[in-house]
């Protein structure tokens, strides 16, 4: 079985970006907004900030109390939209319950939407137009391309219909001429649907949901899920995916968790930041990086 490891692919993206950054007369600036001190959010934001700076980008994290009102957050986003030095804006989710995340997304300037989740970018992606693409789906596509997994004419089943992964990934798969099924909690006989797949993507957030009996022998399996199922003796979180361990004996290729899709999400965030800066600051991007496809 081929392990679809994320770090080497992410590193290839970073090398491409470093080559491009050396030609720019400015340093792209990423702004990450975090509300509250949720441990997972703190860890994710720290990782994004650290990797951005390692790459040579300018990065700043704006931390607000969990009690921050939606009006206060939207006012801050408006300031970031208007700031010519800010190239990318990301509001870390989940947000506190008093904040409507959809309203937050609608408030972000689509040209600075490095998470690729605003209605404008989502709509342009579905229309096949140039857009800042949702980071995790873009990372999945780059991963599959790197390992030369063919998609044209293949049957792809995506389990999970979220705006974050399932829906945008379906759009990107269609762009590569795959036949796509979006399965979800209301899908009848989920196992039978999954067994049709040449490429099966699990993006639900439920540990071990996909069992070996649900996978066609020889299928490519992409595990997007990250689930915390306890802590080890050193007090560190134990992370597992949506795919049960036994699937490795059935699949022809499988992404590990951790170390599969996760590194690609961060890489594509920074890719989007550089592309957003180039578009905003007037440099033509017809020479799109290889990481775009």
From TrEMBL:
Catalytic activity: (6R)-5,10-methylene-5,6,7,8-tetrahydrofolate + NADP(+) = (6R)-5,10-methenyltetrahydrofolate + NADPH; (6R)-5,10-methenyltetrahydrofolate + H2O = (6R)-10-formyltetrahydrofolate + H(+)
An example Gene Ontology molecular-function term: methylenetetrahydrofolate dehydrogenase (NADP+) activity
A Pfam family matched in the record: THF_DHG_CYH_C
Top-rank taxon, per record: Bacteria
Keywords carried by this UniProt record: Amino-acid biosynthesis, Histidine biosynthesis, Hydrolase, Methionine biosynthesis, Multifunctional enzyme, NADP, One-carbon metabolism, Oxidoreductase, Purine biosynthesis
Coiled-coil regions, chain positions: none
Keyword Metal-binding listed: no
Pathway: One-carbon metabolism; tetrahydrofolate interconversion
Record: residues binding NADP(+): 160-162, 226
Subunit structure: Homodimer.
Family: Belongs to the tetrahydrofolate dehydrogenase/cyclohydrolase family.
Function comment: Catalyzes the oxidation of 5,10-methylenetetrahydrofolate to 5,10-methenyltetrahydrofolate and then the hydrolysis of 5,10-methenyltetrahydrofolate to 10-formyltetrahydrofolate.
Database matches in NCBIfam families: PRK14173.1, PRK14186.1
Protein name, as recorded: Bifunctional protein FolD
UniProt organism field: Meiothermus ruber (strain ATCC 35948 / DSM 1279 / VKM B-1258 / 21) (Thermus ruber)
């Amino acid at each position: 079985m081929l392990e679809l490891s994320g770090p080497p692919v992410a590193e290839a993206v970073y090398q491409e970006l470093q080559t491009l950054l050396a030609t720019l007369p400015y340093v792209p600036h990423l702004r990450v907004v975090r509300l509250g001190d949720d441990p997972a959010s703190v860890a994710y934001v720290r990782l994004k900030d650290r990797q951005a700076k390692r790459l040579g980008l300018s990065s700043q994290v704006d931390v607000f109390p969990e009690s921050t009102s939606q009006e206060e957050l939207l006012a801050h986003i408006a300031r970031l939209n208007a700031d010519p030095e800010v190239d990318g804006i990301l509001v870390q989710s989940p947000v506190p319950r008093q904040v409507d995340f959809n309203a937050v997304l609608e408030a972000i300037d689509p040209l600075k939407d490095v998470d690729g989740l605003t209605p404008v970018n989502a709509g342009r992606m579905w229309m096949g137009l140039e857009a800042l693409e949702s980071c995790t789906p873009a990372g999945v596509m780059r991963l599959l391309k790197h390992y030369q997994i063919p998609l044209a004419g293949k049957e792809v089943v995506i389990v999970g219909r979220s705006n974050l992964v399932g829906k945008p990934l379906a759009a990107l798969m269609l762009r590569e001429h795959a036949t796509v099924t979006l399965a979800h909690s209301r899908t009848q006989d989920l196992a039978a649907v999954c067994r049709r797949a040449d490429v099966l993507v699990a993006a639900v957030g439920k540990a071990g949901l996909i069992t070996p009996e649900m996978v066609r022998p020889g299928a490519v399996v992409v595990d997007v899920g990250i689930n915390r199922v306890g802590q080890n003796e050193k007090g560190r979180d134990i992370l597992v995916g949506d795919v049960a361990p036994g699937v490795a004996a059935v699949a022809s290729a499988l992404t590990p968790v951790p170390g599969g899709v996760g590194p690609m999400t961060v890489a594509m965030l920074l890719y989007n930041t550089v592309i957003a800066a180039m578009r905003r600051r007037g440099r033509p991007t017809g020479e799109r990086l290889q990481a775009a496809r």
